[in-house]
Amino acid sequence: MTETTPLWTPTEAQVASSPMTRFRDYCAVKNAVDLPDHDAFQQWSIDARGAFWSAVWDFCGVRGIKGARDLIHGDVMLDARFFPDATLNFAENLLVRHGEGDALIFRGEDKVSYRWSWDQLHSMVSRLQQAFRAMDIGKGDRIAAMMPNMPETIACMLAASSIGAIWSSCSPDFGEQGVLDRFGQIEPKLFITCDAYWYNGKLQDVSDKVRAVAPKLGCPVMVVKYAGDAEALAASLPDGRTMDAVTIPYTASPVSFEPLPFSHPLYILFSSGTTGVPKCIVHSAGGTLLQHLKEHRFHSGVSDGDKLFYFTTCGWMMWNWLASGLASGATLCLFDGSPFAPDGNVLWDYAAEEKFAVFGTSAKYIDAVRKGGIEPLKTHDLSELRLITSTGSPLSPEGFSFVYEGIKPDVQLASISGGTDIVSCFVLGNPVKPVWRGEIQGPGLGLAVDVWDDAGQPVRGEKGELVCTKAFPSMPVGFWNDKDGAKYKAAYFERFDNIWCHGDFAEWTEHGGLIIHGRSDATLNPGGVRIGTAEIYNQVEQLDEVAEAICIGQDWDDDVRVILFIRLAPGVTLDAELDKKIKTKIRVGASPRHVPAKIIAVADIPRTKSGKIVELAVREVVHGRPVKNKEALANPEALELYSGLDALKG
After folding, report:
1. 504 contacts 415 by C-beta, under 8 angstroms
2. In 10 A of CB 223, how many CB atoms?
3. Residue 577, class by beta-carbon neighbours within 10 Å (0-12 exposed, 13-18 middle, 19+ buried)?
4. For 143-280, where are the alpha helices, taking DSSP H only?
5. Rounded CA gap, 284 and 265, in Å?
6. In the chain, which residues have pLDDT < 50?
7. What is the pTM of this model?
8. What SS3 class is residue 105?
9. Would you tell me which of 179, 302, 508, 574 could form a disulfide with 296, CB atoms 3.0–4.6 Å apart?
10. Average pLDDT, the chain
């Protein structure tokens, strides 16, 4: 059904005062070009990428030396280099403020709460920087952290980047093998861990895991006090010290910043690892900084003093995205633990009490709030909240409607999509355009995003591959331990020559927005027709009887048949009547081709640590093939529920 009325439209005053509009006017004057509207601005930002990204640098006041050249070899994606003569330091561009104002606010469920001023953050970064240098950590060395999303983690990252070390992190819920699969590949010079953490109201001790991991990493360990006994854990390690012990010899002084090339490695992020050992994706300081400044200031309207929140762990790229909010002068609101502990209001309490301007979360969280009967609109003062962002998986049309009916009617809702691969977004919100139900508002500035068919031709109004046809600054520097670049090239550039193929199944809308129908490699193909799994989830998860679902294609009779697994709401059973109701809902809401051949109730659905359901892993189990890396999953035991099912044998 075609929507005729947007869910939200910016007022003329909002458009006029938006940083997006101010930046468009700036670019028009600076480059003597006519940019009458956003669509013209978008096209110019692609056609004149060097000038566009140079303008981002200048308008945002990036600290560093830009150099004479803004882009070389721009027509060849793998050879393109932005600002090849530039020097900058990432940490210097995040530590932009001083004083007693809040830089970081933290809550660990309902157990822990504290805040750091900008001066406190500077002080801790200074002391950590001195300690790291005393450990002989410098440019290009890796620091790996298994940490909660807390202020100390931000400070450690900033101290690492201030001296040119490369930061890599995961959350403390990763298992021993999951930690080693990631950090073992990058050979860190220092391993940072917490002593314990809270999840769902329960203390989760990590001591045994740290004692098992540390000798295999073969480097010193710094233990950060949080929920356990840091001193005891540090003392039990061959080369362990607490963060207090590491930093206490040093007096805070002004942080020094190592000037580094634009392309100097900043982060190593990891692919989810559900199809093998995780890929180590290396991101540059300059590319990450410029892309995040663009997304925060222009697409999200973040400005000095805004309270910026994203529900994320340190193992998801949204933590890196959140951290960069400091560069826009924002106060970061950090949260660690379960978003439903002690109850489903915990994040909305936080938002109301701290007056969030931006609330970032996952589509799964919005759906869980909706199905849990939680309506912040009726219970919380969210008057300062102007932007809600959702990512991790496609947000259903019902999720869009719920935000306006159950959370806040005058908020901008930005469904965003990109990923670890680019540590940012390809498509996201736009404060000067309307929000349409079920649609991402549009592509990011400076990104030549398109949808192509299998023949490599652009398509409109039909589904295809999400691609980016021109180089952009936040492309990875490469993969770690991939000296000839073969793995990097294979990951993104094998499908189409000199074109980034992202692996999302997508579609342009009549409004110039996009719909992501799921991952291309999880696309169903019954009768040779490609179907995005999100199209099925959007229908079935509207039903109160269904808590969540996962859908795969099973090889069957020289074709593929659609199998739908559902986790039912409490007290519900899957009988013939519900089976028929689900199939009818899918047939009417999507199409007859989307109707599953089998619907099977399961007790649990496997997911990654960042909450993404793993269709490929379930498909492997159903076909009797081994899943290569169960350590990537939050609940690997759930895979056993899909093995050897009699219902799938006929």
Report:
1. no
2. 31
3. exposed
4. 151-162, 176-186, 207-217, 230-235, 243-247
5. 4
6. none
7. 0.91
8. strand
9. 302
10. 95
